[in-house]
Amino acid sequence: MPVWLRWEDGVADFHVDQAAGLRRLFGTGQLQVVTFTAGSEGLGRSLAVANIAAVLARLGKEVLVLDENSGSDNVAAAFGLAGRFDLLHVLNGERYLGDVLIEPLDGLHILPAATAIRRLGALSRSQQQAFTGAMEQLAKPVDIILVDASTRHPAGFSPLGLASHETVVVLSASSASITESYSLIKKVSQSFARRHFRILINKVRQRADARSIFENIAELTRQRGIARLDFAGAIPFDESLRQSATLCRPLISLAPTSPAAQAFRELAADLPHWRQSENDHGNPQLFFQQLLHLSQRITPTAIRAV
Hints:
This protein is of the alpha/beta class. The chain has a single domain (about 5-295), classed as P-loop containing nucleotide triphosphate hydrolases (Rossmann fold), CATH 3.40.50. It has 14 helices and nine strands. The chain has helices at about 20-25, 45-60, 75-80, 85-90, 95-100, 115-120, 125-135, 160-165, 175-190, 205-225, 240-245, 250-255, 260-270, 285-295; strands spanning about 5, 30-40, 65, 100-105, 110, 145-150, 165-170, 195-205, 230-235. The protein has a nine-stranded mixed beta sheet, sandwiched between helices. α2 (about 45-60) crosses α13 (about 260-270). The chain is globular, with a radius of gyration of 18 Å. The termini are far apart.
């Protein structure tokens, strides 16, 4: 029987079109896959993913979070939970998918996958088959996959971000975070031919500040022909969010009327409408096939400091 954990309440001139081509090849359904990444740690990315996922689940969506982060600072930890297993255990035939999944809320599942994702390029044939078939074990169809991508992937950028339909870069209002985010966008654009990103600005005092930050970085990337940026939203600095993290409860349960909770609701309501094209969406099995192809067939150039 599956065991459920539950919380109670260089430039890639190559290879330029390979990722986009594979996205078109495998995208035939209605699944939406959104990766959240950042230029550095400590920006509240995992906590934001946890709260967005919780809101989406409350809205009736079936949400799967692919968590590429190990340790205590990940999405599961935001709900006071810890995974005992990794997706790699499923690929090795040691566990069923239900043994690995964490279910903090109805409609929300977290799949710890840090070890498996790092080994995607070196899987055996049997592991590859298990990987592409893993999602067949899901009890219900998934509407949205949210990826909490590691900033420490050996290739310099997670293949989850390359396979996803949308990539959201999380940054704060600090000059260091803005610089790191711009550098990340430039490196990924040049090395992996990713030309579109969304910007989520966390811990801002005023929404006008967030807009100003976004417009500056968007104009810079546009002028230099690096990428096109869209504004995903802004999460205000909110003491309630810190308290929710301490208590390991989603903000919509602890302080549903707080400014940050409202911001998460707005972002979650908007996210399903980000779809660029009906032809850009597959199902979880096809997404995993695409991810496997990207990991094995695209050899990224080294990401250089710029």
